[in-house]
Amino acid sequence: MKPQTFSHTTVLLRESIDGLDIKPKGIYVDCTLGGGGHSQWICESLDESGILVGIDQDDFALEYAKNRLAAFACQRHFVKSNFASLAKVLKGLHLFGIDGILYDLGVSSFQLDDDTRGFSYHNDGPLDMRMNQSADLTAEMVVNDYAPGELKKILFLYGEEKFASQIVKSIVKARTLKRITTTLELSEIVKNAYPPKERFKEKHPSRKTFQAIRLEVNGELKILEDALNQGLEALKPGGRMCVITFHSLEDRVVKQLFKDKANPCTCPADFPQCVCGKLPVVKLISRKPMVPGADELEENRRSRSAKLRIVEKLGTES
């Protein structure tokens, strides 16, 4: 059954709110609303003319956030959508010149803890993994219907799984006998495909496989760079963008995009001055990502892989 309470610990909360540098009358977009943890702090900093836009694919999260933020004075818009449609969402709301945009990527704690969503390799549930439960593609379809070559590619690219070949062989063998339909079935198959000496290390053998399948089901990496570009386009000069990632693939996309936007010059390094004419679009607020401190790590183990990167929009275009 779906949990009746929303359990989610907001990661890098103070750092991201400080990073947004919130103006009381500004317009702010939480592209991954979840339960509204970040948005609550944004709303607390806005007055009655300030605007919050909360975007999420999950009906349960949207309803919970609406109730959580109901008492605040600021104007609030809640939209069921994917952050890949950010430009369309803002156009539909007739909002332009955004002051701050936040992306908190990955899976919410409440989704991980809800066995019926199929994100967890620790508990039994249906192989689902859809953030948007009205979407067509499920984890069960990926596991059972994808060709072996496709599965192997996904585990390599999205999971950086060095035992991808062995895992795919085990999955294919198992699914010829019966369709794989639950999380624990898949988790057991993956664990048994690992070399015995690798199975009982600190990190669970299924972690990378479940990550890879989740990314495939929700198309997260495919849409990330485009979504960030839409956000940068929507920001006004001086506006801030904060992005929290939870694994190296996401962080690599964000890091490279921000680097390219902060230094777009394509001139050879030995040129005495720039002649390409490409000007910086953003400035990096912190060159290295912010990470959780010891206290946060102790309170929330799931924050251990979180990284926060922040940029500020400049008044120039490349």
UniProtKB/TrEMBL annotation:
Family per record: Belongs to the methyltransferase superfamily. RsmH family.
Keyword line: Cytoplasm, Methyltransferase, rRNA processing, S-adenosyl-L-methionine, Transferase
A GO term, aspect molecular function: rRNA (cytosine-N4-)-methyltransferase activity
Highest rank taxon of the organism: Bacteria
Protein role: Specifically methylates the N4 position of cytidine in position 1402 (C1402) of 16S rRNA.
Protein name stated in the entry: Ribosomal RNA small subunit methyltransferase H
A Pfam family: Methyltransf_5
Organism for this UniProt entry: Acetobacterium wieringae
Residues the record lists as binding S-adenosyl-L-methionine: 36-38, 56, 83, 104, 111
A single GO cellular-component term on record: cytoplasm
Major site of localization recorded for this protein: cytoplasm
Gene3D superfamilies cross-referenced by the UniProt entry: Putative methyltransferase TM0872, insert domain (1.10.150.170), Vaccinia Virus protein VP39 (3.40.50.150)
Protein location: Cytoplasm
Catalytic activity from the UniProt record: cytidine(1402) in 16S rRNA + S-adenosyl-L-methionine = N(4)-methylcytidine(1402) in 16S rRNA + S-adenosyl-L-homocysteine + H(+)
Keyword Cytoplasm: yes
GO annotation, biological process: rRNA base methylation
UniProt-listed Enzyme Commission number(s): 2.1.1.199
